[in-house]
Amino acid sequence: MAQPTVISLLLVALFAVPGVLAAAVFQPRDVATADSVDTTAESFYSSFWNDGTAKVKYNNGPNGQYTVNWSGNKGNFVAGKGWNPGGPRAVNYSGTFEPNGNAYLSIYGWTTSPLVEYYIVESYGTHKPCSSPTDDAEQKGNVTVDGSVYEIWTKMRKNKPSIQGTATFPQFWSIRTDKRVGGTVHTDEHFKAFTAGGLKMGRHSYMIVATEGQDSNGTASITVGVGPSTS
Ligand SMILES: *[C@@H]1O[C@H](CO)[C@@H](O)[C@H](O)[C@H]1NC(C)=O
Ligand SMILES: *[C@@H]1O[C@H](CO)[C@@H](O)[C@H](O)[C@H]1NC(C)=O
Ligand SMILES: *[C@@H]1O[C@H](CO)[C@@H](O)[C@H](O)[C@H]1NC(C)=O
Ligand SMILES: *[C@@H]1O[C@H](CO)[C@@H](O)[C@H](O)[C@H]1NC(C)=O
């Protein structure tokens, strides 16, 4: 999460040196950062956030693959692979998602200016997001795409962790009513539905096919970027 700051500082430092050394300016950009993987045809960005109390093992596999298992029924984590920056694209993924308790399988990402955390939820465990009164969520519409109706919801997060540190920001949700694990997600249709519902997105930060667990246990094995399996 501190990565953009580090890169900015690096660029400032490097632009300050003249001539020949300036040619080296863009080299650091080509070097894989600690939490990204460069692979064959396409490189995938990998992200793993843990609130510090979740007992979770994330395995960043080759290409678009990852596995995650978690236990202990406490804490919150978000793990997965995708792109940085994210944006409109057809996201293909396949795999398994087997939670006990509260968990989400989503195309998950952030924008800045404004700061927004968004979820395109493909499947979930015991809790349908935005469904309890304590969520204080508001429905803004529906969108039918990729074989299902998705419900568009929003809610506010006050003083919560974000890619810009602790902040207050909205979450946008597009929640598939006919749950699935595997398929193609046309993110642009969800982004359009957010906009149609008056939910304004900003500049895209990362976007991953994420497994999130909250006070639960389970396993997931996901491959991003390949056609859905037929099984
Ligand atoms: C994840 O699975 C491995 C292998 O079964 C196990 O050894 C480990 O304890 C598990 N970790 C968590 C956090 O559940
Ligand atoms: C996982 O959580 C469920 C309750 O949601 C519990 O019944 C089960 O024993 C837990 N399993 C493990 C391995 O922690
Ligand atoms: C979305 O669709 C549901 C039925 O699935 C309907 O009850 C609801 O009124 C719709 N909401 C909006 C805002 O269009
Ligand atoms: C996504 O899956 C479809 C159907 O299998 C395939 O036609 C398409 O090429 C895949 N796209 C990517 C980016 O893998």
Please state the structural category: mainly beta
How many extended strands? 12
Ligands and ions found: 2-acetamido-2-deoxy-beta-D-glucopyranose
> Could you give the distance between the termini?
37 Å
EC number: 3.2.1.8
Family: Belongs to the glycosyl hydrolase 11 (cellulase G) family.
Protein name: Endo-1,4-beta-xylanase
Pathway: Glycan degradation; xylan degradation
How would you characterize the overall build of this protein?
- The chain starts with a helix and ends in a 7-residue tail after the last strand.
- A hairpin with a 6-residue loop joins strand 1 (36-37) and strand 2 (44-50).
- Strands 1, 2, 3, 4, 5, 6, 7, 8, 9, 10, 11 and 12 form a twelve-stranded mixed beta sheet that branches.
- With 231 residues, it is mainly β.
- The chain is globular and about 40 Å long.
- The chain is built from three helices and twelve strands.
- Mean pLDDT is 85; it is low at 1-40.
- Helix content is 12%, strand content 52%.
- One 2-acetamido-2-deoxy-beta-D-glucopyranose (NAG) is lined by residues 139, 141-142, 149.
Concise summary:
The chain has 231 residues and is mainly β. The chain has helices at residues 3-15, 27-30, 187-196, and strands at residues 36-37, 44-50, 55-60, 65-71, 76-83, 90-112, 116-124, 138-145, 148-160, 167-176, 183-186, 203-224. Residues 55-57, 69-71 line the site of one 2-acetamido-2-deoxy-beta-D-glucopyranose (NAG).
